[in-house]
Amino acid sequence: MEHSPARAAATIIAARRHKRRMPQIDHKHQPESLIEAYAVQDQVVKYIGGEAEGWKIGCTNVVAQKQLGVDEPFRGRVLRKAVYASPAVVSASNTVMRVVETELAFRMGAGLPLKNAPYTKETVAPAIEALIPSLEIVDSVWEDWEKVGALHLISDNACHAGLVLGEDCRDWQDVDLAEFEVSVSMNGDTPLTGKGGNALGHPLNGVAWLANDLASLGRELKAGEVISTGVLTGLLYANAGDKIVADYGQFGRIELAFVE
Questions:
Q1: pLDDT (tens digit, 9 = 90+) per residue, 107-148?
Q2: Which domain holds residue 210?
Q3: Residue 83 CB contacts under 8 Å (≥ 6 apart), including other chains
Q4: How many domains are contained in the chain?
Q5: Distance (Å, rounded) from C-alpha 73 to C-alpha 210?
Q6: Is residue 136 within 8 Å of 78, Cβ to Cβ?
Q7: Is residue 214 part of a domain?
Q8: Is residue 13 part of a domain?
Q9: H/E element holding 192?
Q10: What pTM value is reported for the model?
C-alpha cells in the first residue's frame, strides 16, 4: 500500500490547529516503519513552520520502550517559537494535554562531524557548550497516546509542544550526571524526584544516540543546537492555573505557569 506522508501530516496538523484529538492516522496513510514515521514528522514540522532550535529525545527508558514496542529512543524537532525562558507563562489553550517533563538539555558549542561517528558520551562531551535545566511541554493529538504506538508518536513530532529553559550552565563537567538528582512539584505538592541516569543511563548517552541516528541519515548535529535528553522524574499533568517548579540543585530552579 502506498502511504502519503503529506496527507498523514495534514491530518495531524488539522487536529493540532483545532485542538482536537483523534484515535489514529487513517489506515491508508499510516506509517509502517521508522523511515515513514519520520517522513510524516518532517512534513508536520514543515507545516508548523519557523526556525529550528534543536531536538528532543523521547522514549529514553526501557519501560517506555517496551510499552511502545521499540528498542531505542526517538527524536523530534524543537522549534524556536516554542522555546520559553524561565520563569515561563504559557497559555493552556495552546495544547490539549499539557504533560510536563523534567529534563537536562545541552547546547552544542561545536558540530559533530559525520567522519567522527559513531559517538559515545565521552566523545560528545567536548562539543557541548552548556548544560541547561529544562521542562518539556508534551502534547499529543492521539486519544490514547500511551497505547497508539511509537510510529504515531514520532509522526506527531514526538509529541513535542514546547521547551522551557533555565540559564546556561558552563561548569558541569565534574558533576556525575548519572547520579545527579532533580525534583519537581506542581502547586506546592509533594515533589517528584529522579536522577540523570533515568535518561538512557546518562543524559549524554542521549546526545550520542542522536548524533549517531542523524549520522546514519547523513545529517550532523550543529553548533548552537539545543538537545533535550529525556524525562528524569514522573510526569505532571497540568491545567490552566497550575504552576510547576523544578529544582536542579547547583544548576538552579526553573518555573512554568499555565494560564487561561
A1: 999 999 999 999 999 999 999 999 999 999 999 999 998 889
A2: 51-259
A3: 53, 162, 163, 164, 165, 226
A4: 1
A5: 9
A6: no
A7: yes
A8: no
A9: strand 192-195
A10: 0.95
